[in-house]
Amino acid sequence: MTSKKVTDILLFVSIGVFLFGSGYKIGEYNTQHTTKSQSSYTIRNTEPKVSQKAQDVDFSLFWDTWDKVEQKYVDKKKLDTKKMVYGAIKGMVASLDDPYTFFLTPDENKQSKDDLGGKFEGIGAQLGLKDNRIVIIAPLKDSPAEKAGVKPGDYVVKVDGQSTNGWKLPQAVSKIRGNKGTKVTITFERNEKTFDLNIVRDQINVSSVDLSYEKQIAYLKLSQFGENTNREWDKATTEIANKWDKKEIKGMVLDLRDNPGGYLESAVFTASDFLSQGKLIVRQESTTTENVDYEVERQGKLLNIPLVVLINKGSASASEILSGALRDYGRAKLVGEKSFGKGSVQEALDLNSGAGLHVTVAKWILPKGDWIMGKGIEPSIKVDLITKEGETITKDTDNQLQRAFEEVLKQ
Predict the structure, then answer these.
(1) Is residue 257 part of a domain?
(2) In whole numbers, what is the pLDDT of the chain averaged over residues?
(3) What does the angle CA 180 – CA 184 – CA 185 come to, to the nearest 5 degrees?
(4) Spatial distance between the Cα atoms of 1 and 7, rounded to a whole number of angstroms
(5) CA neighbours within 13 Å on the CB side: how many for 197?
(6) Cα dihedral sign for 41, 42, 45, 48?
(7) How far apart are CA 172 and CA 217, in angstroms?
(8) What is the domain range of residue 220?
(9) Are the CB atoms for 293 and 236 separated by under 8 Å?
(10) H helix count then E strand count, the chain
(11) Angle (deg, nearest 10), helices 264-271 and 318-328
């Protein structure tokens, strides 16, 4: 059993499950190979494997129900034992009533890993949860979703006519994903009005980092904290540092808008380029394990460059760790809108047969003690994005970005 540390609200619609987490195993499962015959099937591994407390659980009702379904259900072709087991596990985990703790089938777990690797097929939009409803965090640049007019904050009401009420993120991802060239019909809700969009899926290739230069200012857009983020970030910030040393630029804008998060370690890695060694970036607090302090452990390349960070309601989890730490140390001005507000930590575990489990194991706290769960991070300079109906926002018409450039030049 292996685990990944992730910090995400998010799964992506086409990026898939953006995920977010910590690094502790809840239990070690020792495989036992007892079997018993039951109707037309054989049940393996029937002995409890976790704790003495678990051995006191009475599973007779479960097996009674299973037997009755197998004996009585009218359509025997639908009795897929693997799906039934997966469904039972999903129900068990869902009983915790935590939208960020969920079981992944092998296919769903593979999709989750592909997402953070930056390659998949779908519509190209990031999914999250808001009030237990499926919501668009952000459409990806030049994606089918963006071209179709999907916007951050749109609620996903139906997928191909199926209501999303009560859906968890993996279920939404699996329904909206699909092969390149296939079509999906999604019913959205925006400003209390619903509408349908027919979107043709495509191959989505995502780079975590996009670097350009405007008005002698380095503009770095960080879209997620994924598998390739540290490598892409290091390359981009080395270039920025060289230009800063040569006085070719006057400062930097770091754009974290609509970045739903990802690996906690990447948030620590990116923050370390702006803060001096030894400074606390984030504290992970748990009731089941020791607290963990994540501190700067390397020499940063951008310790003195004037810096403005852009955030909005799509900036979540790892994005909030990065922007919050920079805020707490007065290292950057935050411009834009209040962030999403996710302060819990999930551990991504690999289970048998390629399945997975994302389980909430802790909460994370900013350097000055702020827990932002449900309340987000307020920018020091609030700027609402101004959009015109029927027009795509460009760098020139992006009033939040233009304000960020202005603030850099003031420093």
Answers:
(1) yes
(2) 86
(3) 160
(4) 19
(5) 21
(6) positive
(7) 39
(8) 209-344+363-410
(9) no
(10) 9, 24
(11) 30
On whether the pTM is more than 0.85, the answer is no
Q: Is the pLDDT of residue 103 over 90?
A: yes
Residue 77 belongs to some domain of the structure: no
What are the structure tokens assigned to 227, written together?
């598998």
Q: Where is average pLDDT lowest: 28-32, 111-115, 340-344, 405-409?
A: 28-32
Going by pLDDT thresholds of 50, 70 and 90, the confidence category of residue 118 is low
Whether residue 373 is contained in a domain is answered as: yes
Residue at 295 is within a domain: yes
Write down the residue that tokens 């769960």 correspond to: 373
* Rg from Cα positions in the chain: 23
Smallest Cα–Cα separation from 385: which of 371, 404, 410?
404
Distances 75 to 54, 287, 374 between C-alpha atoms, Å? 34, 46, 45
Provide the number of structural domains found in the chain. 1
Which tokens belong to 57?
């659980």
pLDDT in tens, 121-133: 899 998 888 888 9
> What's CA 120's distance to the chain center, in Å?
15
Q: Are 372 and 339 in contact (CB under 8 A)?
A: yes
**Distance between alpha carbon 214 and the CA centroid of its chain, in Å?**
29
Catalogue the active-site residues. Answer: 317, 342, 346
